[in-house]
Automatic annotation (TrEMBL):
Record protein name field: Glucan endo-1-6-glucosidase BGN16.3
Keyword annotations from UniProtKB, A to Z: Glycosidase, Hydrolase, Signal
Cleavable signal peptide: 1-24
Any matching Pfam family: Glyco_hydro_30
Coiled coil, from the record: none
Glycosyl hydrolase family 30 beta sandwich domain boundaries: 435-488
Lineage, broadest ranks: Eukaryota, Fungi, Dikarya, Ascomycota, Pezizomycotina
Organism encoding this protein: Apiospora saccharicola
Membership in a protein family: Belongs to the glycosyl hydrolase 30 family.
Amino acid sequence: MRSSTLALWALNAASIAAAPGACGSHNLDSRQYPTGAKAFASSSDGKYKLSAFDAPVKGAGSPPPSGASTWKLSVDDTPAGRRQQITGFGAAVTDATVSVINALSGADRAKLLRELMTSEGADFALLRHTIGASDLSALPAYTYDDTDGNVEDKTLSKFGLGDRGNAMAEMLAEMKKLKPELTILGSPWAPPAWMQLDRKLMGGTEQNNLDHAYVDEYAQYFVKYVQAYAAKGAPIDAITIQNEPLNSQSGMPTMYVYADESGKLIRDNVGPALKKAGLKTSVWAYDHNTDQPSYPQTVLDTAPEFVDTVAWHCYATDNKWSVLSDFHAKNPNAAQYMTECWTSSKSTPWNQASSFTVGPLQNWAKGSLAWTLGTDTNDGPYLGGCDTCRGLVVIDTAAKTYEFTVDYYMMAQYSKYMPRGAAVLAGTGSHTYDGGAGIQSVASANPDGTRTVVVENTFGNDVYLTLNTSAKGGEQWSGKILANSVVTWVLP
């Protein structure tokens, strides 16, 4: 159950029973929206893909079909109900992403980028990219300062983005042009091998740690990277100093960083180096799972001058997004994001991308990021780690065609209708039964005065939903939520 410990998303009322599965309209018909409300749906079977759907009506509406499931939600859309402001949603741009998108024809490539970054499609406003190689890179693994024999390069004279780094920076620059308000987060899987105790980029887990003889060079590595990307037209808004610092593996670039070590590196080296260089890039803490909240707490306590944001991943054995609410209670001024959760060709359900978006939003996250944005038809290229991680878009590099996955549509149900600057609203009604089925919902007050309500229905039957709001003297809206789907209402 992804419910906040603040009880903002407790069960309100539900009566679950089988119901007829009537379909809504696929075409945008102005007659459908006499009250100004709109609805859009994406379904697990692919019949609906951000498609116009039966709009909610004001009041109780027509009685639901006999035997239909019913559900009640409430949203506090008064100023008192406003919580965190949304920054955006998106995915990770990896070397795999760049290479497969660049395999498309010029026209199709441009069309895809517009669909990803503008209102033509998902309208993503938050991206994370890999600094050097990750598991979703082709061999050989690399960083931006590799040397023959991994000998030290204290002056960083060998620093360079290389072909893959330049290609990534150029693509991010294009995305930034399409979405000027885009926020870009950079995360390294490992620093150059010569900075590590084992002098290895891959192949071992013993002494897979930073050599503290090079802490200044490590900090300057980030400075040079940020400067190089900015020069390409891809300004970096934030970094984490290590992806998954508690994950040490031999088959891909990784590095183990202790919590107190991370805080001190940011406080004494990375933060001051970025500041001295006149860079506005911020540093986010942690970039790992919800089962170790003491880690980011240590970092924030150690480096409060430079860190006020925490990045979380979804891979804890017993993942609980309520950890973010607990963290918020202790650190009310800290921003939080869900920065990585995979979508798989074999192992994740149809609602995966919705689940790792709605849960964090309910618990004070300002945005959510999928792993990863794009892959080929073999879930790659990859050098190790995840060999079944599927992108939100899959590119057939031989045929030079692309296809959006179910995860893309489920995430776009949020990103397309919850813009940057929208305020997440308090509410009640979300609930998951044992086994995972249920209704999850999150709402926002948008800068243009509209309100968005996103509802995930993992029941195998339609649900007739009644929504009560608090503003404007209190309103009631009613309408159908399609079985096994995510439906978004946009209310005036």
